[in-house]
Design brief:
The chain is α+β, with helices and mostly antiparallel strands. Helix content is 29%, strand content 23%. The protein has two domains: 179 residues, CheC-like (Chemotaxis protein chec, 3-Layer(aba) Sandwich); 135 residues, no CATH class.
Length: 382
Amino acid sequence: MTEDKLHSVIQRKAGAERASHGPAPMTAARALGLSLAKAAQDGMALALRVLRVEERRLSLAELTEAIEERALLAVLEGPAEGLGLAAIAPSLLAALIEVQTTGRLAATAPPARRPTRTDAAMTAGFIDAALAGFEEMLAELPEIVWGGGVRYASYLDDPRPLGLLLEDAGFRVLQLELALGPSGLRKGGLVLALPATGRGGGPRRVPGTGGQTVSATDAAEAEAARWQADIERVVQHAPVTLDAVLYRLTLPLSAVLTFAPGSELPLPAAALEELRLEGYGHRLLAHGRLGQNRGFRAVRLVAEADDTAAAAPAAEPGLLAVAVPRSAAPRGGAEPASRSKSPPVPQPIAPPPGAGPMLLAPLADTEAEDFAMAPLKMGSGF
């Protein structure tokens, strides 16, 4: 064999060796190990790596035998009310509680003890985070049928009710041995058992992708976009009430009790040019001026709202009057009361129902001329 041919053979072998060391295919066992490590690191800054993982199918009786004594038993709920189990070994449970309470992991594990409801509450977030990551990594795989949509449901302090709680229909069991801490000196174990007959949906697909399978993250983003479009469409058609406020007056109760046909309320002439358009809670939205359009009282917007503007300008009493019409007199009649010159008060004047956009009230035929700064009659549209 010549030197060139020998070199070519070595190159082909080297290329084949590099190809064989490519990214490992995703499996349920690998996905669970990665999701557990990420949940531990993100949730409590605990270094966790998988030493060994075993995947098998067990009956309910075999499952109860695979659970370590004094393990924390977390009941899991999946699609179609399917129930599974996560059994956290005492060594792993001690590490999770220790990191959350003291912020660090001791070199040696404490003695095993019986888990409590408090332990379950402190580990529920870790379990859910790991299961969510597990589901995301399985989104493009057939295993999503039995591994997706599973979350923490409750806690059992005794393994004996498992025979009554779980269905004896076979379980897919992932049993892991874990190394904990930066040095990996602490060890822990976890058993995940889910119904073998999957009850969830298949690999997720998003409309508009040609039926291609996508990851759970992409599916969630597409669902969020659809939800945002739907809520925007609903909000855009929701009714909104705006108040066109010409002016606000503050009057003492004694003056209000003397109101009668012919009573006049002092308004500044500038009020017609300084109308406020307000939303809910008297929030200022825009400034405008009062006018008329096609026989209706109308508001012309002249400026956007200024966030620094807090209230309407102070009154200049006596420049403009609003009179109480005699047609509104109560039965029996009442004598006109004298005009009050008290300071202004917040009292919004809302447009009547049925008017068109920004139209406050219809004018009489004799009032359809161009707008003029004249006394306003109460009942003529305000």
